[in-house]
Design goal:
Elements lengths: L2 E5 L4 E4 L2 E2 L5 E2 L3 E4 L2 E6 L2 H13 L14 E6 L2 E5 L6 E3 L3 E5 L2 H9 L4 H9 L10 E4 L1
Antiparallel strand pairs: 1-2, 1-10, 2-11, 3-4, 5-6, 6-7, 7-8, 8-9
Helix pairs in contact: 2-3
Protein backbone atom coordinates (compact mmCIF):
# COMPACT_ATOMS: atom_id res chain seq x y z
CA UNK A 1 0.00 0.00 0.00
CA UNK A 2 1.73 3.19 1.15
CA UNK A 3 2.15 5.69 3.95
CA UNK A 4 0.85 9.25 3.93
CA UNK A 5 1.45 11.46 7.01
CA UNK A 6 0.41 15.05 7.66
CA UNK A 7 0.65 17.55 10.49
CA UNK A 8 -1.06 20.88 11.14
CA UNK A 9 1.76 21.86 13.51
CA UNK A 10 4.40 21.34 10.81
CA UNK A 11 2.08 22.50 8.00
CA UNK A 12 3.29 19.61 5.90
CA UNK A 13 2.40 16.29 4.32
CA UNK A 14 4.81 13.53 3.34
CA UNK A 15 4.51 10.29 1.45
CA UNK A 16 6.54 7.37 0.29
CA UNK A 17 6.74 6.65 -3.45
CA UNK A 18 6.36 2.85 -3.70
CA UNK A 19 3.40 1.34 -5.56
CA UNK A 20 3.12 -2.39 -4.96
CA UNK A 21 1.38 -4.88 -7.21
CA UNK A 22 2.54 -7.31 -9.86
CA UNK A 23 5.56 -5.05 -10.34
CA UNK A 24 6.88 -2.44 -7.90
CA UNK A 25 7.05 1.07 -9.36
CA UNK A 26 7.08 4.65 -8.06
CA UNK A 27 4.53 7.46 -8.27
CA UNK A 28 3.61 10.85 -6.82
CA UNK A 29 0.93 10.26 -4.18
CA UNK A 30 0.38 13.86 -3.08
CA UNK A 31 -1.10 16.70 -5.13
CA UNK A 32 -1.61 20.35 -4.29
CA UNK A 33 -5.06 21.54 -5.34
CA UNK A 34 -5.89 25.14 -4.47
CA UNK A 35 -4.86 25.71 -0.85
CA UNK A 36 -5.01 21.98 0.06
CA UNK A 37 -2.65 19.03 -0.11
CA UNK A 38 -4.25 15.67 -0.97
CA UNK A 39 -2.46 12.38 -0.28
CA UNK A 40 -3.79 8.99 -1.41
CA UNK A 41 -3.31 5.40 -0.30
CA UNK A 42 -4.69 2.10 -1.52
CA UNK A 43 -5.47 0.70 -4.94
CA UNK A 44 -3.57 2.93 -7.37
CA UNK A 45 -6.38 2.96 -9.98
CA UNK A 46 -8.80 4.28 -7.35
CA UNK A 47 -6.22 6.79 -6.13
CA UNK A 48 -5.69 8.19 -9.63
CA UNK A 49 -9.45 8.43 -10.26
CA UNK A 50 -9.93 10.34 -6.98
CA UNK A 51 -7.04 12.74 -7.68
CA UNK A 52 -8.34 13.43 -11.19
CA UNK A 53 -11.78 14.22 -9.71
CA UNK A 54 -10.33 16.59 -7.09
CA UNK A 55 -8.13 18.34 -9.65
CA UNK A 56 -11.03 18.75 -12.11
CA UNK A 57 -13.19 20.59 -9.57
CA UNK A 58 -16.23 18.63 -10.73
CA UNK A 59 -19.26 18.79 -8.44
CA UNK A 60 -20.60 15.35 -9.31
CA UNK A 61 -18.95 12.61 -7.26
CA UNK A 62 -16.98 10.06 -9.26
CA UNK A 63 -17.85 6.40 -9.35
CA UNK A 64 -14.79 4.83 -7.79
CA UNK A 65 -14.00 1.12 -8.08
CA UNK A 66 -15.37 -1.02 -5.25
CA UNK A 67 -12.21 -0.93 -3.13
CA UNK A 68 -12.11 -0.97 0.66
CA UNK A 69 -8.41 -0.10 0.82
CA UNK A 70 -8.72 3.43 -0.61
CA UNK A 71 -8.17 6.43 1.66
CA UNK A 72 -7.26 10.01 0.97
CA UNK A 73 -6.25 12.69 3.43
CA UNK A 74 -6.53 16.43 2.86
CA UNK A 75 -4.43 18.98 4.74
CA UNK A 76 -5.36 22.65 4.61
CA UNK A 77 -5.13 25.63 6.98
CA UNK A 78 -8.62 24.83 8.31
CA UNK A 79 -7.66 21.30 9.36
CA UNK A 80 -7.30 17.69 8.30
CA UNK A 81 -10.00 15.79 6.40
CA UNK A 82 -10.38 12.12 5.52
CA UNK A 83 -11.89 10.95 2.23
CA UNK A 84 -13.01 7.43 1.33
CA UNK A 85 -14.91 5.86 -1.59
CA UNK A 86 -18.06 7.87 -0.82
CA UNK A 87 -16.10 11.09 -1.53
CA UNK A 88 -17.49 12.77 1.56
CA UNK A 89 -15.09 15.19 3.31
CA UNK A 90 -14.86 14.01 6.94
CA UNK A 91 -13.09 16.21 9.53
CA UNK A 92 -10.34 14.74 11.70
CA UNK A 93 -9.99 16.38 15.11
CA UNK A 94 -6.36 15.41 15.70
CA UNK A 95 -3.52 17.79 14.79
CA UNK A 96 -1.78 15.02 12.79
CA UNK A 97 -2.97 12.02 10.81
CA UNK A 98 -1.63 9.14 8.73
CA UNK A 99 -3.15 6.61 6.38
CA UNK A 100 -1.98 3.55 4.48
CA UNK A 101 -0.20 0.39 5.54
CA UNK A 102 2.33 2.32 7.66
CA UNK A 103 -0.26 4.57 9.32
CA UNK A 104 0.06 3.22 12.85
CA UNK A 105 3.83 3.61 12.91
CA UNK A 106 3.63 7.10 11.45
CA UNK A 107 1.00 8.12 14.02
CA UNK A 108 3.22 6.90 16.86
CA UNK A 109 6.20 8.78 15.42
CA UNK A 110 4.22 12.00 15.04
CA UNK A 111 2.84 11.63 18.58
CA UNK A 112 6.51 11.83 19.65
CA UNK A 113 6.69 15.16 17.77
CA UNK A 114 8.42 13.95 14.60
CA UNK A 115 7.46 15.87 11.48
CA UNK A 116 5.73 13.83 8.72
CA UNK A 117 8.85 13.20 6.61
CA UNK A 118 10.76 11.84 9.63
CA UNK A 119 7.73 9.74 10.61
CA UNK A 120 7.71 8.07 7.20
CA UNK A 121 11.47 7.54 7.37
CA UNK A 122 10.88 5.59 10.60
CA UNK A 123 8.12 3.51 8.99
CA UNK A 124 10.32 2.60 5.99
CA UNK A 125 12.31 0.29 8.21
CA UNK A 126 9.29 -1.83 9.20
CA UNK A 127 6.63 -1.68 6.45
CA UNK A 128 7.54 -3.49 3.25
CA UNK A 129 4.80 -1.64 1.34
CA UNK A 130 6.35 1.75 2.15
CA UNK A 131 9.39 2.59 0.04
CA UNK A 132 11.70 5.44 -0.87
CA UNK A 133 12.06 8.09 -1.96
CA UNK A 134 10.14 10.06 0.64
CA UNK A 135 8.56 13.25 -0.66
CA UNK A 136 7.54 16.20 1.52
CA UNK A 137 5.14 19.05 0.72
CA UNK A 138 4.35 22.26 2.60
CA UNK A 139 1.12 24.23 2.74
Amino acid sequence: MTTIACSLKHKSMACDSRITGDVIFHADKVRKVGQSLFGVAGNWETCVAFLEWVESGAKEKPTLPDDDTFQAVELCKAGIYLWQRSCIRMPVQERFYACGSGAQGAMVAMSLDLEPKAAIAAVLRFDESTGPPIKSYSL
